[in-house]
Amino acid sequence: MSTEDNNENFEQLLEKSFTDIKKFEPGQAIKAEIVSISNEYIFLQLSGKSEGVLDKEELINKEGKLTVKEGDIIQAFFQHSKNGEMRFTTKLSGDKAGKSDLEMAFENQIPVEGMVEKEIKGGFSIKIGNSQAFCPFSLMGSRRIDNPESYIGQNLVFRIIEYKERGRNILVSNKAIMEEERNKQIDSLKKILKENMDIKGTVTSIQDFGAFIDLGGIQGLLPISEISRDRINDITAILSIGEAIEVKIIKIDWKTNRITLSMKALLDDPWDHVQMNYKIGSMYKGTVVKVTNYGAFISLEPGLDGLLHVSELQGNSKTTNPQNLIKKGETLTVLISDIDKANKRISLKSVAPNEDNTDYQQYMDQESDTYNPFANLMKNKNKK
Q1: Could you tell me the CATH superfamily of domain 94-180?
Q2: Which of 80, 160, 189, 330 shows the greatest Cβ crowding within 10 Å of its Cβ?
Q3: Helix intervals (H) in 191-225
Q4: What pTM did the predictor assign?
Q5: Over the stretch 318-333, which tens digit does the pLDDT of each residue have?
């Protein structure tokens, strides 16, 4: 092959290498794979053999940990090209952002860093480079603001939602960024979380109807009825905010992003052994846990209640209101008349005061050739 042919092939390869490098417009968004990470930079795989460069510090969290690894796919925005090196960013640094940068960030929806300078009427004044922006209370954070002062001095990430009067009127939202991050977390958790899965979480809020549990980026509800097999009046007596607990996921609705949790489902179900532990016709002591118009529910053990019908409560009484016949928390002896394991129902009968002392009476009345001084003593005492 001649020198002329070699030169021609080299020129063709060189020309091809340039055509392989895709041209980007400032602010253009891309999704690219991280191919390597150095002490200062993250390198992104672009078209062909070209790579993009991203400052590593952009993806280091508050704890100083890198939030990505080689092989991850991330979204970045093209800034500029210098000496053949294409620079990208995931957000514009506030101290480096001029008005032209902010306008580009607005047009291309690039996140920007800003410092919460002070509280003003209706929201916060945000300093971004040499510009001032306004963030309403309603667009700061992902929850209702109870303590605005806590935001002052913080460096946060915002989305510019209005850019007017050549940068003299800028409206920003931190909430938009928080929601985007939450949606990413949800998309990731959708691949992990499944119904009937046991998982650890942290109690973040306690309400009258239950507790909210953080599952690593998404909240799940632990209803009061799913905390224990006992009936609960005060959740704070069992759970506290910040407490780490284990729960079972009993329902997931990704359309509404609602997850229902249970601690009770992790406990043994007493109904599994009800016919082994309880016999029809036998008497047991129980506690009144609920009184209704049609009778009283008696707890034989946590998670195992029986119904004592109002007709069993009335006896010779003329009153028909169970509330006047029996009180919540009262302990009494009942007889099991029926067990329906399939429907988890136990029917109870009331026991007359002298009926629950049957064993004692049989002992006293038994006839035996053996002299029983205790029985004789009690019989003589009862005759007097």
Answers
A1: Nucleic acid-binding proteins (2.40.50.140)
A2: 160
A3: none
A4: 0.56
A5: 666 778 788 888 998 9
